[in-house]
């Protein structure tokens, strides 16, 4: 861990995500050429991220998750492009997803097998073809995160925080170049939050994290503040957090 890998280069070029507007939505939509009404939920985004640690803050519904989902092609831009190390999320989708791992807020979106160990093995199926080899590699991943005991229990018998740590091990198992995490500390107590922060610190990967935890937001090289679908600040974490706090000072 903590190696000397070069950070990935993530380029968003005029990227916009639009969704059709419900007739009863209280929003100001734009009208498309065909008369359809659309609402921009994030963008336009013009960013080049080259930093190892990027955090994203913003109010509920501001567009953080959508921005994150653009990075591994879970969401494709309605206009513009998103590239990771030169790979286009639309054109080179599966190559991008092998490179960019995504950790969901709800760990049960990640943990689909009866036990965490089986989930880690599932992550490793592409890189470790033989059963015994895969089982040994899964054991090493669980040991590395101190999760060997939890790995054999039913995921439904684990606490929310335990599931969240296991889900992180599952996404890191394949050693992705980029780790994108959507609110990874929501279910964690203070001890496990610190454990997660130390784990993130030690990773050689590029890590992009959306969070409401302002202490975690500060542990970055660069922080984006998202407000009403736009990046309204992009720069040093401390100034970004001050900007976000000021934005949310009045209800
Ligand atoms: N597939 C979709 N269809 C329609 N609207 C969507 C879709 N995905 C997201 N939205 C809307 O886009 C806006 C931004 O959502 P997003 O999940 O990106 O916000 P967020 O900043 O991550 O919020 P939170 O902090 O609450 O998780 C919200 O108003 C949401 O309801």
TrEMBL record:
<keyword id="KW-0547">Nucleotide-binding</keyword>
<dbReference type="GO" id="GO:0005524">
    <property type="term" value="F:ATP binding"/>
</dbReference>
<keyword id="KW-0067">ATP-binding</keyword>
<dbReference type="InterPro" id="IPR050095">
    <property type="entry name" value="ECF_ABC_transporter_ATP-bd"/>
</dbReference>
<dbReference type="InterPro" id="IPR017871">
    <property type="entry name" value="ABC_transporter-like_CS"/>
</dbReference>
<protein>
    <submittedName>
        <fullName>Biotin transport system ATP-binding protein</fullName>
    </submittedName>
</protein>
<dbReference type="GO" id="GO:0042626">
    <property type="term" value="F:ATPase-coupled transmembrane transporter activity"/>
</dbReference>
<dbReference type="Pfam" id="PF00005">
    <property type="entry name" value="ABC_tran"/>
</dbReference>
<dbReference type="InterPro" id="IPR003593">
    <property type="entry name" value="AAA+_ATPase"/>
</dbReference>
<dbReference type="InterPro" id="IPR027417">
    <property type="entry name" value="P-loop_NTPase"/>
</dbReference>
<comment type="similarity">
    <text>Belongs to the ABC transporter superfamily.</text>
</comment>
<dbReference type="InterPro" id="IPR015856">
    <property type="entry name" value="ABC_transpr_CbiO/EcfA_su"/>
</dbReference>
<feature type="domain" description="ABC transporter">
    <location>
        <begin position="19"/>
        <end position="249"/>
    </location>
</feature>
<dbReference type="InterPro" id="IPR003439">
    <property type="entry name" value="ABC_transporter-like_ATP-bd"/>
</dbReference>
<dbReference type="GO" id="GO:0016887">
    <property type="term" value="F:ATP hydrolysis activity"/>
</dbReference>
<keyword id="KW-0813">Transport</keyword>
<dbReference type="GO" id="GO:0043190">
    <property type="term" value="C:ATP-binding cassette (ABC) transporter complex"/>
</dbReference>
């Amino acid at each position: 861990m903590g190696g000397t890998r070069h950070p990935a280069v993530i380029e968003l070029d005029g990227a916009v995500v639009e969704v059709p507007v419900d007739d009863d939505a209280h929003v100001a939509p734009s009208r498309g050429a065909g008369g359809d009404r659309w609402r921009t939920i994030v963008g336009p985004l013009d960013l080049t991220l080259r930093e190892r640690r990027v955090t994203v803050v913003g109010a509920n519904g501001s567009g953080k998750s959508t921005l994150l989902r653009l990075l591994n092609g879970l969401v494709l831009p309605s206009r513009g492009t998103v590239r990771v190390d030169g790979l286009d999320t639309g054109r080179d989708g599966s190559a991008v997803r092998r490179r960019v791992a995504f950790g969901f807020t709800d760990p049960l979106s990640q943990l689909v097998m009866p036990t965490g160990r089986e989930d880690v093995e599932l992550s490793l199926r592409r890189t470790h073809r033989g059963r015994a080899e895969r089982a040994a590699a899964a054991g090493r991943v669980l040991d590395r995160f101190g999760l060997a005991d939890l790995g054999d229990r039913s995921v439904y018998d684990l606490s929310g925080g335990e599931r969240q740590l296991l889900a992180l091990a599952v996404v890191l198992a394949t050693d992705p170049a980029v780790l994108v995490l959507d609110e990874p500390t929501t279910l964690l107590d203070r001890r496990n939050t610190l454990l997660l922060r130390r784990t993130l610190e030690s990773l050689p990967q590029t890590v992009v994290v959306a969070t409401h935890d302002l202490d975690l937001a500060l542990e970055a090289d660069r922080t984006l503040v998202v407000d009403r679908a736009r990046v309204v600040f992009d720069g040093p974490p401390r100034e970004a957090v001050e900007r976000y706090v000021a934005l949310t000072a009045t209800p």
